[in-house]
Amino acid sequence: MNGAKNMKAETLLAELNTIRKDLDEDKSDLEWLTLHHAFCYISYKMGDFQDYIDDQEKRGAFDEYDG
Q1: pLDDT tens, residue order, the chain (67 aa)
Q2: Burial class of residue 5 (count of CB atoms within 10 Å of its CB; 0-12, 13-18, 19+)
């Protein structure tokens, strides 16, 4: 494994939240609605998301990430 080891769901969720907060809250904007509801759903399903991240890590999905 070259890049990140033990990627955490919290790390990705924090980045998604940063992207979401970069937009003005506009409930008529599809981009804001998409990011907001994806963030809320993933937050609600953190255990499942971490399982997904663990599986993807085994497949090398984060090997190029140096964080």
Answers
A1: 444 579 999 999 999 999 999 999 999 999 999 999 999 999 999 999 999 999 999 999 999 998 7
A2: exposed
What the block records as the tokens of 24 is 């003005």
Q: Long-range contacts of range 12-20, CB-CB < 8 Å, 24 or more positions apart?
A: 12/49, 12/53, 13/39, 13/42, 13/43, 13/46, 13/49, 16/42
The rounded radius of gyration (Å) of the Cα atoms in the chain is 14
Query: Residue 62: exposed, middle, or buried by beta-carbon count in 10 A (0-12, 13-18, 19+)?
Result: buried
> Helix H segments across 2-60?
9-22, 30-44, 46-58
- 45, HSE (Cβ side, Cα atoms, 13 Å): 11
